[in-house]
Specification:
With 93 residues, the chain is mainly α. 75% of the residues lie in helices and 0% in strands. The longest helix is centred in the last third of the chain and has 40 residues.
């Protein structure tokens, strides 16, 4: 387990987390445009009808980014469980 907790791997993980957060901040700032210029005559609040093309693209991009994050978190959990089981089997034999 020690070989996974190197300075290099920790810095890579921090870099990935910072990149992920920066994407969330970027998409959130782009979606603030929708809040600022929402027009009730175009449709219900947060409906796709009330958004222009770029607002729809940002909204769908944010939802895709949520999905990507869920997949990556699931994969990381899978890998950690796999490593723990492998270490448990080696120590029990």
């Amino acid at each position: 387990m020690k070989r996974y907790l190197t300075i290099k791997n920790i810095l890579i993980a921090i870099g990935i987390i910072l990149f992920d957060l920066s994407v969330y901040v970027f998409l959130g700032l782009l979606l603030m445009n929708y809040d600022d210029f929402y027009d009730e005559s175009k449709g219900e609040y947060w409906s796709l009808e009330s958004m222009d093309f770029w607002q729809k693209a940002n909204y769908i991009g944010l939802n895709i980014w949520h999905l990507i994050n869920l997949i990556v978190i699931g994969y990381v959990i899978y890998r950690v469980i796999k490593i723990i089981r492998k270490n448990a089997l080696q120590h029990s034999v």
